[in-house]
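Lab manual, section 2.4: Encoding a predicted structure.

Procedure: take the sequence of the chain (199 residues), apply the prediction step described in section 2.3, and record the output as structure tokens. A sample record is shown.
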Amino acid sequence: MSKSVNIVWHDSNVTKEDRQSRNNHKSAVLWFTGLSGSGKSTITVTLEKALFDRGIQIYRLDGDNIRHGLNNNLGFSPEDRKENIRRIGEVAKLMVDAGLITLTAFISPYREDRDNVRWILEENEFIEVYVKASLEACEERDPKGLYQKARAGEIKNFTGIDAPYEEPLQPEITIDTEEQSIEESVDVIISYLRENGYL
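Recorded output:
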């Protein structure tokens, strides 16, 4: 429920379609979800550069980066996780309106929260990318040392340890980082964007 009252939406004289036409590509959100350490950030960093080098208007939103600023007042309770994803969804929607391909790298453990972002966008503007890796593989990688801290009880509500992760049921793209290299993963995603008319 919005606390804002007496507000009116002001339309622009420049439409999303105008921006897409000038960019010569569609805008959309590629929503990368998966366990910590699955490879979301690594893939999106590489993908962002690959698409930028092709002249695509693109921006990447990363979970840790967003929590440094926009969402620095949120913790990791289920309620705060929900609000974290809601805010990111609204920012991503603005970026789609601006004509950008937007990459988001968030654990986003709850299906309902991911679906809520899908619902605020127009059809075919939300592309769910499941970055799949077993808990064992993620713990072995543990690039930030978070699993070790979670296992030691130093971090509470850690996804995959003492908080749930709900796998996507029908993601548009699944990347298995135990089987596919970063380069192969990026190629799969770019191929999807080409074949489905985004690029």
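Check your result against the sample. Residues 22-195 form a domain with the Rossmann fold fold (CATH 3.40.50.300).
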